[in-house]
């Protein structure tokens, strides 16, 4: 089970400032009619990692208008800039679960729990990805390059920097990219002009950033991915860059609260007032 590193400080801060924070991020859980989706909705509501993610979004980021997260519906996952809504359908979770079950060894201990954990990891990573779009739109942040790549980068940075063992969240998201990429039998032109990078590129980029965040703990990823030593070295520099650049860009739109600063030295100084 993964917990937000400083969850107890969150509780204290939320009690102190519950009035001002109440409307920053609003969450709505639609009631699914389908029993299968109802059980997914219950798992989602009960998941501590998801609740910590929502608390983090509410606590750390400033929005001129409240950001609404809607679980349910048919569209998404996406960020709707017109309504300032993040849409996360239960059917997406169902689809992700189906993909992980298909490749999970059901005979291992805690097989069901492992699948559920991987699904929730993907939801956290996806919420952070959509949060990036929301922050870019709300604050008109300058992004040079593909916004979709930038959103993936922020999702990796927030997962890794704010959650204990948060790299595992990014690794689950990378696994999903890999499985989605596996669906493609033949590339079409649309795959190349899509605003997203190819699934396999997103898989490798995410694992590159995980490796780059801690090349000792995730040394095994060099072999797993087949990265050359040169690429591995560049992953380290690349991760430091994206973490520094994103958090520098977001600093004016984050609560100036040193209590919740990430622990890593490379970015910790950004939050010291
Ligand atoms: Zn996106």
Could you characterize the architecture of this molecule?
The chain has 273 residues and is of the alpha/beta class. The chain has one domain. The chain is 61% helix and 6% strand. A 4-stranded mixed sheet has the order 1-2-4-3. Helix 7 runs parallel beside helix 10. The longest helix is centred in the middle third of the chain and has 29 residues. The radius of gyration is 18 Å and the shape is globular. The N terminus and C terminus are likely disordered. The site of zinc ion (ZN) has 4 residues, from helix 6 and helix 7.
* Helix share, percent: 55-70%
Rg is: 18 Å
Question: Class by helix and strand content?
Answer: alpha/beta
**Count of alpha/pi helices:** 13
Main beta sheet strand tally, sense and closure = 4 strands, mixed
Shape: globular
Biggest β-sheet: strands ordered side by side in the sheet: 1-2-4-3
Cα end-to-end separation:
33 Å
Q: What is the subunit arrangement here?
A: single chain
Instruction: Domain count, please report it.
Output: 1
Strand content: 5-15%
**Associated small molecules:** zinc ion
Unreliable segments of 5+ consecutive residues? 1-20, 264-273
- SSE sequence, one letter per element: HHEHHEEEHHHHHHHHH
Number of strands: 4
């Amino acid at each position: 089970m993964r917990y937000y590193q400083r969850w107890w400080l969150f509780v204290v801060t939320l009690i102190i400032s519950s009035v001002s924070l109440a409307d920053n991020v609003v969450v709505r859980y639609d009631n699914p009619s389908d029993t299968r989706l109802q059980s997914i909705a219950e798992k989602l509501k009960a998941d501590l990692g998801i609740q910590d993610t929502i608390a983090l979004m509410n606590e750390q980021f400033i929005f001129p208008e409240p950001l609404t997260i809607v679980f349910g519906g048919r569209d998404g996952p996406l960020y709707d800039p017109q309504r300032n809504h993040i849409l996360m359908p239960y059917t997406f979770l169902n689809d992700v679960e189906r993909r992980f079950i298909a490749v999970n060894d059901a005979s291992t201990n805690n097989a069901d729990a492992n699948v559920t954990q991987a699904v929730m990891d993907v939801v956290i990573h996806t919420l952070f990805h959509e949060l990036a779009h929301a922050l870019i739109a709300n604050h008109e942040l300058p992004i040079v390059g593909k916004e979709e790549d930038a959103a993936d980068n922020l999702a990796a940075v927030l997962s890794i920097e704010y959650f204990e063992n948060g790299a595992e969240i990014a690794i689950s998201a990378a696994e999903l990219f890999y499985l989605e990429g596996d669906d493609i039998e033949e590339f079409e032109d649309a795959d190349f002009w899509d605003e997203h990078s190819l699934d396999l590129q997103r898989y490798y980029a995410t694992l590159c950033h995980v490796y780059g965040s801690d090349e000792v703990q995730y040394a095994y990823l060099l072999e797993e991915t087949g990265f050359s030593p040169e690429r591995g070295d560049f992953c380290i520099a690349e991760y430091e860059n994206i973490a520094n650049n994103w958090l520098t860009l977001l600093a004016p739109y984050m609560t100036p609260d040193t209590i919740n600063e990430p622990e890593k030295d490379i970015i910790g100084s950004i939050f010291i007032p």
